[in-house]
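Protein chain data
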Amino acid sequence: MGTLHRTLAEVSAHRRRRGPYTAAGSLLRQILPDILARRPDLGVRHHIEILTAAPEFAGQVPPILATLESTMMSGTRTRYQSRVHTLRIANGLAELLRDSLTEPGTLIVEDVHEADETDREWLDVVRRRISPDLLTVVHTSTSVVPGDAQAYVDADGIGVDDAAYLSLAPAARAALHDARLSLLLAGGVGAYGAVCWHAERGSDPRGPGLLRAAQVHCKDHGLYHAAIDLGRRGRALVDREAQPDLWWDFTGDMTTSLAASGQADEAAAAYHEIRALTEDPEMQMHAAYGTAMLFARHHAEGRRDPVTARGWLNVAIALAGALPEKKDRIFYEVFNRNGLALVEVRDGRPEEALRLVTEGIDRLDRELEPDDQLLHRTGLRYNRALVHVMLGDLPAALADYDHVIAVDPHFHDHWFNRGNVLRRLGRTAEALADYDRALALSPPFAEAYYNRGDAHAALGELEAAAADFGRAAELDPPNTPARLSRAEILADLGETAAALTETRVALADDPGHAGLHCLTARLLGELGRGEDAREAVSRALLLDDNCAEAYAIRSALSFEAGDLTAALTDLDRAIAVRETPELVFNRGVVHQAAGSWDRARADYAAVVAATGDPDAEERLAAVAAR
C-alpha cells in the first residue's frame, strides 16, 4: 500500500489574482506561520525568496539587505536582475517547502494553465526537487458557474460566467470595477493581479499609475514576463498623445524586459517602433543604445554583430552630446561609451575596453559631485574589474572589487566575483569567505556552490566540496561539470560505487562527454571490472582521440593485465598529448617492470628534477643500483 498523503494546501495559480507568485505566495500565507514557529532557521535561510513571493511577511523574517540599485529610482537604474533570478527564487522556495515537510502531503494547485511564468517555473522545480513520495502536486481547474455582473466582478472574472456582465453598458461595468478596485486597495492587496485587471477596466484615474507601479516593481525584481505583459497593457490603456511620458515609460521598461528575458526580436521591433514615432533625441538615444545591446549580447550567438552594435552606440553617443542638461549629457556620454566597452570586450579588444571604462570613471570623478550617479560609477568600477581579469591583472581587479564592495556591500555578485579573483591569486580561504557571503545575500545559485566546492577541494575539505558540487548539480541540471567534480571527489574519498552512480546520472544527460567516460572507466577498473572499463575508455577515445586521461587509464588496465607493451604504448600517447610528472612517473614504473633500466632511470630522474617526489627518488636509486 502507498503512503497516505494529507492535503497540505489548496491554492490558485491564476495570475489574475496576485500576478507573479500567486500560487507560491498563497501557499506561504497558509503554511509559513507554522513553519516559522517550528523551524525559524528556514525563515532566515530563505528570507529573500519568502519576501519576494509574499512580502507581507516583512518583520517575521530578516529583511532583504538593500543594495545600491534597490535605493535608486527605476529610471536611474543601470543594473537589473539576472535572467535566472526567478529560477534561484524557485529553487529556494522549493527547498523551504521540502525541508519543512514532516510527513507526506498533497498540494492542490488550481488553474496552472493561467499561471504567471514565475509560478510555472516554481512548480517545475518543486516536481523535480521534491520526491513524489513526500509531496504530490495535483492540478485542477476552476469550474465556471452562473452569476450576475456583481458576482463576476467580485470574483475578479474567475469562475463566474460573464454573460450578465457583458450585457451591461460600459459605464456600468466600469463602475463595478472601480468599486472592486477601491475595496482591494483598502485591503492592501498590492498593485498586481486583480488590482491591475480592475484598474484597466474601470474609470478610476489611478488606473494607469497602478499598472505602471506594478510594471516597475516587476522589472526591478527580475519578473520580466510580468513586466512585459504590464507594459503592453499599459500602452493600450493610455493615449500616447495625451500622456506621452507615461506611454514612453511603459514602452521603455517593456523593451528592457524583453531584452533581459531573451526576447530580442520583440525588443528590436519595439525599438523600430520608437524610432518611427518620435523625433525626441533622448528617446532616439535610448532606442539606439537598446538596439546596440541586442547586437552585442541579447541576440542569439549567430546574430550578434559587433560592427552593427558599435554603429548604434556611436549614434547614441552623438545624441547624448545634444542633451540640454549638462549632467545628463555627461552621464549618458559615459554610459553609452561603457556600452561601447562591452562591445570591445566581446570583439576581443579588452585593452580598448579598459581605456574607455577608465576614461569614463575619471570623467565622472572630475565633473560630477561625489554622490552623483553612484550606481553607475560603481558599475563602471565593476566592469573595469572584469576587464582587468580578462587582461590577467588580478591585483588591479581586486582593488576595483574592494572599492565596489565598500560602496555596495549587499550585492552578491560583488562578493562572488571577488572570490573568483582571490581564488586565482591562491588566497583560497579568503575566497571561501567571499563565496559564503555571496550565498548569504542571494537565493541559492549554482555558480557560487560550484566555485565554493572548488575552494573546499583545494583546502582538502573533500566532504564539503562533494556537498557543494552536489548542490550545484541539483540547482541547475544537468550541470555536467558539477556532477563530474562531485564524482571525482567521491572517488578520492574511496566512495567508488557512489562516484560511479554520479557519472551514470551525468552520462544520461550528457552522453558525449569524454571526461565522464574516462572517469567511469577509472571507477570500473577500481571495482575490478576490466572489460567494462576498456569499453568506457573506447567510448571516450571515440569522442576525443586526443584525451590523455583515456590513454593513461587504458595503460593502467593493460599494466594490471600484464601487457607491458600496450601499457607503454598508451603512456607514450598520453605524454605526447600532455606531459605531466605523474604520467612520466607511471611510464618509469612500466619501464622498470619491463627491465628497461636506463629508460626507467631517465623518467624517474625527470620527475625528481621537476617535483622532488620521494617515491621517484626511491625508485631512481633502485634502478640506478641495477
Q: What stands out?
A: The first helix runs from residue 15 to 18. Strands lie at 6-12, 105-110, 135-140.
